[in-house]
């Protein structure tokens, strides 16, 4: 079925984001209140944080995870897919890699979690991007709309706070309004958010961004209530030692799609990730022993503790 907007079917995805919003101008009115809301600082208790090129899903009956969230999105987009009947919810952080397959898998995850439960419909909320010089945000917006449009299920687009509608100008520079988004799994509320605690093994997980791996990964096993990392292998990185000798300014200018808009901790995070890659050039040998993933269980205080799978 096509993507549904205000109950009507989208016949085709337009060739530019501006044309899309000109046709569906109600989205502009609907995001006004969302743009002005304060940023909520989300604590570690009940939180499952999703990194770039990751997605995860759960349902209201999960007594461990009650909030899904992600941030540090500049040109990236955060997509939330939710079934209104079961409350089953999935959140993904997209950067343009593996978009179509990941959208399909997120929809399948939500429908599987909703099987046999009360009727409802699948709704989508999209956040992220801005009017960037390279047009990266707009290309991703259209790619995501196209991927949703191709799904066999009816998909209702409820929020499109993306690219043009997620843009503001400060000091003559374009900035994204939403850097981070969370969804309350039990209520379905989505809101602007930041996350002091992003979970375990961040440099390991982020290493896939710099080493040629282009796959969105499902990070959560709801049945066992465990965070699952890997297994995966990095591609060759012959100049890692030279990269680590370069100043922070190089990382911002050359390893980001939007250097001016990156958060203040960007360079430090990149350096930690590069050090991880240097210390573990083949994680299949030194991290994922015998090809096994790493599993973590969330304690009541919100900390993740490593456990056997």
UniProtKB/TrEMBL annotation:
Gene Ontology MF terms in the entry: protein-N-terminal asparagine amidohydrolase activity
InterPro entries: NTAN1 (IPR026750)
Organism domain of life: Eukaryota
GO cellular component: nucleus
Pfam family membership, one: N_Asn_amidohyd
PANTHER family xref list: N-TERMINAL ASPARAGINE AMIDOHYDROLASE, PROTEIN N-TERMINAL ASPARAGINE AMIDOHYDROLASE
Stated name of the protein: Protein N-terminal asparagine amidohydrolase-like
Upper taxonomic lineage: Eukaryota, Metazoa, Spiralia, Lophotrochozoa, Brachiopoda
Gene (name only): LOC106161871
